[in-house]
Amino acid sequence: MAPGAAIRAACVIAALCAATLSGCQPPPRPEKAPEAAPAPAPKPAAAPQPPAPERVAATPVAPEAKLPSKPKPPAKKRPPKPKPAPEVAKSAPPPPPPPPNPEEERQNKRDAYLAALSKATINFNPPSPIQLQQRAAVALTVTPPAETAQLAEELRKSLDPSTVWTPRLHARLTGADFQIAAADAKGADGAKDLSPIGRTEWGWSVLPQAPGSKKLIAAVSIPLPPGLGGPRDLPPLQRAVEVEPTLAWRVENAWSEYWQWIAGALVLMGAALALSIQGRRA
């Protein structure tokens, strides 16, 4: 084989090996060039010169074909991790409340005591009608709520040990054209200890001085411990009383009320009597 043909065969084999190693189909095999006619035998005189190797252009290797890539499955979305709850700063415990002010405590207990007494049941029903110049008995009763005694005791304990105080009520009765006197000499001033288990009672004797429609007024006040204010008055109770005149009063007061009429009648009677006497004489 000629040297040029050997070189070409070697280049083709190398190209085939490269294509096989790359995983691609080998390129089409190029057609063999027609063998050149053998050169005439050289003359024995001169040593034959080897022909220069021919430069054969390298067969271009086809680029590696890219296989279609498979679509990647969509990535699964992971649920977001829950954020840790922010740590709450531990606050310091609140300071203990200041001790109660003794004066404010006494005032609160006083207000509770007064509020209970303001709900007391008061009965005041004087008799009507009343005969003039005749005495009649009038009564007043106060029945506080059940918790009043306990509230009064708490108020008493809140006072200074040197303070002496007893829960009491003061009642008075007034009325125009009435003479009023306490039925019990012991309670003449109207002050009585508050009953812890029931009602507190007052009684008066009233003597009407004039006939007609009159009014009797009962008022109740609540004395307080020293330093906690003066007495507190409950709403007064007013009742109408009819005073009827007696026969004796009518006779006694007839001249003062009707003297003009009586005098005129006496004059007329005297004149008629004088005329009657003169007529008889004639």
Protein described:
This protein is an alpha+beta fold and 282 residues long. It has a domain at 102-250: Immunoglobulin-like (Sandwich), CATH 2.60.40. It is 28% helix and 21% strand. The chain has helices at 3-21, 102-117, 148-158, 247-252, 254-281; strands at residues 121-124, 130-131, 136-143, 168-174, 178-182, 191-193, 200-208, 212-222, 232-233, 237-244. Helix 2 packs antiparallel against helix 3 (148-158). Mean pLDDT is 76; it is low at 22-27 and 30-38.
List keywords for this structure.
single chain; 282 residues; alpha+beta; Immunoglobulin-like; four-stranded antiparallel beta sheet; 5 helices; 10 strands; elongated
Structural class: alpha+beta
Give me the count of strands: 10
Percentage of residues in DSSP E strands: 15-25%
Output the helix-strand order.
Answer: HHEEEHEEEEEEEHH
Question: Fraction of residues in helices?
Answer: 25-40%
| Annotated CATH topology of the domain at 102-250 | Immunoglobulin-like
Point out poorly predicted stretches: 22-27, 30-38
- Give the overall average pLDDT: 76
Broad shape: elongated
State the CATH superfamily name of the domain at 102-250.
Answer: Immunoglobulins
CATH architecture field of the domain at 102-250: Sandwich
